[in-house]
């Protein structure tokens, strides 16, 4: 057939690689066809069968039958997989899942599973079929299990007459195993021929594949399963130059069937199908036509047949590159300025550079030649020319040129003037000169002097205006009854909170510092000396609630009695007045523990304790102490490290450890304690707990912030934690990060001071937990060093991502200042920063000025966490010899203890408080009880704690007082009561009358109380604010 095409058929390549490639292409095409059909299946079923072949490898066959919307059925082999290791139901289910998902089939369309009777297939709980059905049900479908696969080959083996074959095999096996001598000789024979198996194989009724490899005669039973161990020729390592040919020879061991050979490079298969530069077809050899650097590696010849696989010795192939010279450079200039010298040029062995042991370039890398440089000839003046005739200006001139000799070859030019002028009348010239030039000269000089004088006056006025301090004081004392906070806002002319008024203001920053103050009498005149001008704005938020919008503005020059004196007695009844008229940082002047302790005597009216500048306070509610009885209560902040040593795991302190007492304290209702913290509160990233110290100085968990508890109550705000406590003791807020997204806030501050040498200036950067108490350690250290705050402290979010914190100094004027090498960037490790536990960290930069005339320093301090946030501290300061008084914050140092008792300690008047409690503690059929009050005040979590209290409304109001102690604003409470009244007014008329009157009384009482407090405050305070 087609005799003319015989030559064309002979030219078709039928090598093993070609056949394998074409079989692979056919297989891929069949898979694509099956995938296209499977996408159209409305329903499908699978049949699975697992059996073991002659090499004891479990083979899993998966058949697929599907039907589309045209009722066209398709039945194909879905996949065949080899199961390595165990063949449990889970292993088979994973293989089936992989095949189904690879084909893109959906589980909810599977309607039937068919298996054989093996336990791994049909197990009720761990069988493959049960797992498949559960998977289908989970996807929204339903599948039926069937057991109807019968091994036809097993039935055929039992019925067909194979006696002529099997009898011979059985007799041979029996003879070998009948006697020990025969058995040992047979094992020695297997060892001599390097057989895969070390003993005779037994006949099996179950494994049909085992039967298929058993020969019908005695003479070739072992030849079929044989593959020797040793290669007849192993590949040898070589060193080949680049672009050379690589030939690796391999002769595999003998075996039946004949072993197929593959090549591995660095344990990865080498294929000539993907690389035209490689040929593996020539008699098992590996040929690389043109060697490349990437062809270097370890090559292994792999021989395999149905019985086993053999690996040859590894051959190391190195592709080396011999070095080559680059082009010559240009000749260098002559090495002498005058006379005979040398010129040279060079080249390098980099075109290419030798690699992998390649030879270095041969020849000289430098060439030299002689040169003659022309000597320079300096120029000389010619003789002067004749004088010119006398001009109208009574002058004559003469000239000369530099040509005797002219300068050549880099010689010097002539020195002196080339022209000369003299008076030609011996000073007797009487010609009249025009005076207009003198008039212009003197007019310009006068205008310049006037401009300079105007500029000096403008600069003096500008400095005077910018040296003044502008302060807005918002007074809300009418709400607090005397226990208020003052908000100091920086003006736009400059920042009076910083030490150096010469620092350029950042107009984009608006910072507000809010903290309780203690007031002094008129003897503290020097307290406000740094403030030459103060503008005070007073407005009561009760006026806002009453609709009164008038504001009173008072102006005063800095002297004494700027603030009311009578309130100082309420706040500082127990303070030590040993120091007068000082301003300090937001912290104590020393680290003495008595400065972080406050005491007070409280009776039935209750009161409040505050540790100044720490964010820690204690509210004792009205009625907590029995009538005709009083307790001396105290509050102490532990500044030591004993608390840290007993924490567990990844826990860190988020605020100071606070203890209140005395231990035998007996109160009728819980006290409200406020503690500042440094965590960015997020339940997904933090596990925050309240812990109490036991008698053996160990910490025990009281409650988790996110859990409800009836033993105590915890309310987390953005910067403070408010606690309701029944038992005195030591408490601490402890946090454990749950994810790397957990953030705690750091406060950054930079201080500066002159060192012992007047030429050195020290910058110290502090990183401390962002709580007022933690910053006190920084203040104490800088007070002893005489440090000055150079920039407003800034907040840096520090993430729990295990990356360190880097501090670097930038933009230092190199021509004015020098810094030690390798100190411009310093680093804190992550554990140092994360586990600082309220202890400050700092690093120092030591700078030296080149001249004593350098009076200013400007630079930037960058503080950044690797893969986190960054803050820039801008430093611009004067470094004069005289030290300045450090005034970073408006804080008085002589008020170390504050306590207040009686009604003035609370924002809500007692009568209004009692009316609210009487109204809301009584259960109402419409649900208008204390639970609604808690909801409107946003305190509606952990209601079980309030429910067990004798007066839930009183405890809710105490918590509200503690939460709003710094805002001094009753608007939120008034709005909540008004909203409750509106809700109540919508109820039925007959159920409305009496409760309506209660709410109206509360609202009216609130307004009356507001008016009264406002008037009283105005009468007491007005004389104090007169200029």
From TrEMBL:
Keywords: Developmental protein, Disulfide bond, Immunoglobulin domain, Membrane, Receptor, Repeat, Transmembrane, Transmembrane helix. Residues 927-982 form the Death domain. The chain crosses the membrane at residues 439-462. One of its GO terms (cellular component) is plasma membrane. It is a single-pass type I membrane protein; Single-pass membrane protein. The keyword Transmembrane helix applies. Its main location: membrane. InterPro entries: DEATH-like_dom_sf (IPR011029), Death_dom (IPR000488), Ig-like_dom (IPR007110), Ig-like_dom_sf (IPR036179), Ig-like_fold (IPR013783), Ig_I-set (IPR013098), Ig_sub (IPR003599), Ig_sub2 (IPR003598). Residues 216-318 form the Ig-like domain. Pfam families: Death (PF00531), I-set (PF07679), TSP_1 (PF00090), UPA (PF17217), ZU5 (PF00791). Coiled coil: none annotated. Residues 596-737 form the ZU5 domain. It is found in: Cell membrane; Membrane. GO terms for biological process: axon guidance. Residues 984-1027 are annotated as: Disordered. One of its GO terms (molecular function) is netrin receptor activity. Signal peptide: none annotated. PANTHER family: NETRIN RECEPTOR UNC5 (PTHR12582), NETRIN RECEPTOR UNC5D (PTHR12582:SF5). Belongs to the unc-5 family. Receptor for netrin required for axon guidance. Mediates axon repulsion of neuronal growth cones in the developing nervous system upon ligand binding. This is Netrin receptor UNC5. It comes from Lates calcarifer.
